[in-house]
Amino acid sequence: MAEPQPVLEMTGIVKEFPGVRALSGVDFRLFPGEIHALMGENGAGKSTLIKVLTGVYTLDGGTITLDGKSVRIASPLQAQHAGISTVYQEVNLCPNLSVAENIFIGREPTRAGRIQWKRIRSEAAKLVDRLGLDIDVTAPLSSYPLAVQQLVAIVRSVGTGDSDGEGSGTKVLVLDEPTSSLDRDEVLELFRLMRQLRDEGVAILFVSHFLDQIYEICDRMTVLRNGTLVGEHMVRDLDQVGLIELMIGKALDQLEELHDHQLHADVGESLLKAEGLGRNGGIAPFDLDIKKGEVVGLAGLLGSGRTELARLLFGADQSDAGKVTIGGKQVAMSAPNDAIGAGIAFCSENRKTEGLVPDLTVRENIILALQAARGWTRPIPTAQRDELVAKYIKALDIRPANPEARVGQLSGGNQQKVLLARWLITQPKLLILDEPTRGIDIGAKTEIQKLVVSLSEDGMSVLYIAAELEEVLRLSHTIGVLRDRKLVAQLTNGPEITTGKILETIASGEHQ
Amino acid sequence: MTTPSRWRALTRHHLFWPVAVLVALLLVNVPFTPDFFAIHMTNGHLYGSLVSIVLFGSPLILVAVGMTLVIATGGIDLSVGAVVAITGALTCSYISDQADQDSLSGVFLAMGIGLVAAVVCGLWNGFLVARMGIQPIIATLIIMVAGRGVAQLITDGQIITINSSPYQLIGGGYWLTLPFSIFVVAAVVAVTVALTRRTALGLLVEAVGGNAEASRLVGIRSRRIKIMVYVFCALCAGIAGLMISSNTSAADGNNAGLWIELDAILAVVIGGTSLLGGRFSIGGTVIGALVIQTLTTTIYTIGVPTQTNLVFKAAVVIVVCLLQSPKFRAKVFGARARVTAPAEPAAVAETAPKMEVS
């Protein structure tokens, strides 16, 4: 069978940034009616390639051919007009507007200069209906969970290009990490929509860090490493181990090392005790005992109260019931300051909004927590500061290893490491990590998990939250299972505990 | 380092454009006033256009320096003009009630009263913004409007004139051949720089302005920091109020410091501090304030008719702001530079590319 004509062909793509060659001669092609995964570690050039394709960056070399015609894409708007639509990890819509308004924003149908609101509503409803979604288009976007907002973003991008509501002007749909904050059902709904669009002939470029999802939904994949093309494969021809080896360019020794890792046994005295701690609308009152050097994992679906529990322990939200004792002394957790003073550190799951200050440098972000604890009148002496920062940049292998770099310019994995470094220099007794491995590549993921192991061996307690049950299972001495905003069980990790067992507990809501 | 790369490093410096604009504005004066840069000594005092620009710009520099810190936390303070008026009114009315207006202790006490009033205004602003969570523009609007009324109440709606030679020193006197207010400004700027860069205050202010929620979760007492910057800003405005009333030996509740808040905000922006908060530059603000004062002086020296001088000022400000915008510069200067560059495959990017490295 002759190969069909690719809808998109990128050849010899080069993109340079000052001092860095982000892409060197990458070829990439996309066929109509396929879901194509773009794979690679953080910094391999995935985002850069997508940004070149969607007109955010201008390319420094190479050609882009769309439908057999050579095109120049100089802006996101041009990309949209050419039929390339993008949905990013963070939904870029207006939560205060209605779903219909969001779908048509920027290309409202007008008559005599007036926007035809009725037509917007009816066409949005038709579009949503055609894609098999159950969404009230007149409701404000913010009334829907993030997952639905993401679907709306996809509907919007599919609707781009024509406003007569018939068919779709989109030839290429780029989905950049759309699943990283979705739970299983939401992912399935997204996949259903993706398959429908694929069957309608749309070429979908899909980026995800979840390998299982790649294998579930994708037809073909392109693997990048260090800005170069490693290969293009049919998904069915390449197994996961082979793929990971292609991505990281070496065998899986370091990953296996972690798989074989034994939980260290010397868990000490009780460090933190929460009794009847709870918050209305956040999480039902729970008891939790975290011991010195213990890793407590929290498992549960997205929205089951994992983050809410962690925030109460840190004083990020105020509890309305119960108490916390640390080292035998009761601590009033009215603000993060109280928790920090008691030796608790908290890496939020939202690196960008609740973690980093993007305009400040790596150095400034790293010393922020320590400096805040010292107060503004006692700056950390320059020599000591530089030494500390250099030490942690090296220890965590933060790249670029330049303390003057703006944190906003770092890749996700490196941003996460900066956040970790920020708290590690305060030498906390309890480190709360909320989804520390979300949206970062497999190499950095492994490094962070290894770090957790070694920290707990040194006597630090860790509260570890992750969506991936394997991660929780691998690292934790005790696993707290949450369901519907309730801590339903605490399992002591051992040979009889498996991900299946945890899933059962989540599903049944009780500990057998 | 080659010459072009040194030049590029220079143009990338955050003070390059503000300084370039200042120098250009100063040069504009030369054809109209050939001895514009001349400074001469009369009766042991230095005189000259440059000295006058710094002298008349002093209150604006003070107010703008305080404003910089407020803006860096993501706020804004519209009340500074009213605080200028209140401080001047209180101080002058106290001095005018004295039997001996030249008494040093009386003058110090009067200034103390004025500055305490300024601090109270700052505390009120800080309280509304940091504790009550009111948007800064609204919170400070209260004193902007009501403060003028308070100043009028203090002066009974009259212009209070005083005759106190020690008090006149601050805004109108000379010391070591230079106007005394230049020393006051230098001291305030030096203290501000030391306060923000020698301690960790600058970093914490930038963190609060750069990401408020992250700052809270990292344990920064951001409310305290915000209250501090509003108090500091009001204090700077208070000192400016002393200076203005001292210079004229009068307190005018209605007109003292009128619209100075807008010039101050402009100075901050010209100096390169974003109104969104975060990174700030005290040096940039000082340059920015000097740009605005030079502009005012230039309007007089080149003889722009009074009825059009606001339009002229607005036009220059627009040009300055455009020059500061990297996007604008890329469009205007970048496009020409690209013609000579080797085969550029694509047009100018819509957004300035961000370096992404891992």
Structure description:
- By secondary structure, chain A is α/β, with parallel strands linked by helices.
- Chain A has 4 domains: 1-83 and 171-251, P-loop containing nucleotide triphosphate hydrolases (Rossmann fold, 3-Layer(aba) Sandwich), CATH 3.40.50.300; 93-169; 252-343 and 429-512, P-loop containing nucleotide triphosphate hydrolases (Rossmann fold, 3-Layer(aba) Sandwich), CATH 3.40.50; 351-427, no CATH class.
- Chain A is 35% helix and 25% strand.
- Chain A contains 18 helices and 22 strands.
- Chain A has a 6-stranded mixed sheet, sandwiched between helices. In chain A, strands 18-19-20-15-21-22 form a 6-stranded mixed sheet, with helices on both faces.
- In chain A, strand 9, helix 6 (184-199) and strand 10 form a beta-alpha-beta unit.
- In chain A, helix 13 packs parallel to helix 15.
- The model of chain A is unreliable at 161-168 (pLDDT under 50).
- With 358 residues, chain B is mostly helical.
- Chain B has one domain: Orthogonal Bundle (ABC transporter involved in vitamin B12 uptake, BtuC).
- Helix content of chain B is 68%, strand content 4%.
- Chain B has 15 helices and 6 strands.
- Chain B has helices spanning 3-12, 16-28, 49-72, 80-97, 104-131, 136-155, 165-172, 180-198, 201-210, 212-217, 222-248, 260-270, 282-301, 309-324, 326-340; strands spanning 39-42, 45-48, 160-161, 174-175, 178-179, 250-251.
- In chain B, helix 3 (49-72) packs across helix 13 (282-301), helix 5 (104-131) packs antiparallel against helix 6 and helix 7 packs across helix 11.
- The radius of gyration of chain B is 22 Å and the shape is globular.
- Chain B starts with a helix and ends in an 18-residue tail after the last helix.
